[in-house]
């Protein structure tokens, strides 16, 4: 088992050309641990700028994509286009896409298939709402979200997928999951993968945590055996992101 620690930033719908240039410049000169894979999720329109200027040991992700390569789909962006402008990854199934935009498990799964076919790597986000946690259905919800992808992707290609467990109640709220809460769900996701895909995929898939990750809480979370990294929102727009990138050092 060798799961390289993985840290993603998700800038969401934030940034200006000037602010992004400053942020990238600060990331480019920062010292980072050798054994960490770093990916930065960037709004579509800034991907070329970031892909051109970001340090080459980090990669760029789109924050969404559509399920077709091209055609009459006004306002959509294809996985092929993301690749063309320098993204190597795409974030799919983020709770803001599922819950604010209304994307279904099936649609997310279709996106995962198309993105992988186009040669992108995928950050697959899953996670429960507060009322689902309180109702004791966290694992059922997460398994249902994963089921759709397993059904669509099958057993191949899991080397190109990183899972991000992001409890919706922890996103942007300052209410981080405790290391024990994160570990419990991550271990259950690994167990799920063992049964639904294979023991190999379960052992090798990175399962990262997202939801109010900060410089203050990242080290404790990183110590848990099934926490293989982070997907970071707000703190990924600040120099603090570097502390999180180095959380496992
Ligand atoms: O949604 C997230 C990352 O995808 C988490 O956002 P915050 O880190 O701002 O809570």
Automatic annotation (TrEMBL):
Recorded metabolic or biological pathway in which this protein acts: Carbohydrate degradation; glycolysis; D-glyceraldehyde 3-phosphate from glycerone phosphate: step 1/1; Carbohydrate biosynthesis; gluconeogenesis
Known catalytic reactions: D-glyceraldehyde 3-phosphate = dihydroxyacetone phosphate
Biological process annotations from GO: gluconeogenesis; glyceraldehyde-3-phosphate biosynthetic process; glycerol catabolic process; glycolytic process
GO MF term list: triose-phosphate isomerase activity
Enzyme class: isomerase
EC identifiers of the protein: 5.3.1.1
Top-level taxon of the source organism: Eukaryota
One CC-aspect GO term: cytosol
InterPro entries per UniProt: Aldolase_TIM, TIM_sf, TrioseP_Isoase_bac/euk, Triosephosphate_isomerase, Triosephosphate_isomerase_AS
Keyword list, A-Z: Gluconeogenesis, Glycolysis, Isomerase
Listed NCBIfam families: tim
Subunit structure and binding partners: Homodimer.
Family assignment from sequence similarity: Belongs to the triosephosphate isomerase family.
Protein's name in the database: Triosephosphate isomerase
